[in-house]
Q: What sequence folds into this?
């Protein structure tokens, strides 16, 4: 499935799911597109077929998932990654920082969670901007 077009991905997966007796799907891709994860989550919810995303866009963690979805993603969430980053900053007493980010989808959630972590902490973080 080398085509990243959402329509062709959905059609191809539905063709495979309807033509074979499948108990589950392990999906890996080399994109970084969250759209792949959203499509797989939707397909899992609609078909009740468990799907495991192990790499690329399929492993970009979605929260929340579709009702009835059995889509498991083997990746760390943005929140988990930021918690580790802040633990390292705290360990070395690096309390002043700025955030440098791209404008790719999800960057606003990243920035928002940085604010949640710094506002709810007893550490005197000096957030110098984005």
A:
């Amino acid at each position: 499935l080398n085509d990243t077009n959402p329509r062709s991905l959905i059609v191809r997966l539905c063709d495979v799911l309807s033509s074979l007796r499948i108990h589950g799907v392990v999906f890996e891709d080399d994109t970084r597109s969250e759209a792949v994860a959203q499509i797989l989550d939707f397909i899992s919810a609609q078909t009740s077929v468990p799907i495991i995303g192990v790499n690329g866009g399929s492993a970009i963690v979605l929260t929340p998932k579709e009702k009835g979805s059995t889509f498991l993603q083997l990746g760390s969430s943005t929140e988990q990654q930021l918690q580790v980053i802040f633990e390292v900053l705290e360990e070395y007493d690096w309390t002043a920082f700025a955030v440098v980010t791209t404008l790719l989808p999800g960057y606003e959630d990243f920035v928002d969670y940085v604010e949640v972590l710094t506002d709810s902490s007893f550490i005197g973080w000096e957030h110098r901007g984005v």
About this structure: The chain has four helices and five strands. The two ends are 37 Å apart (CA to CA). The chain has a mean pLDDT of 85.
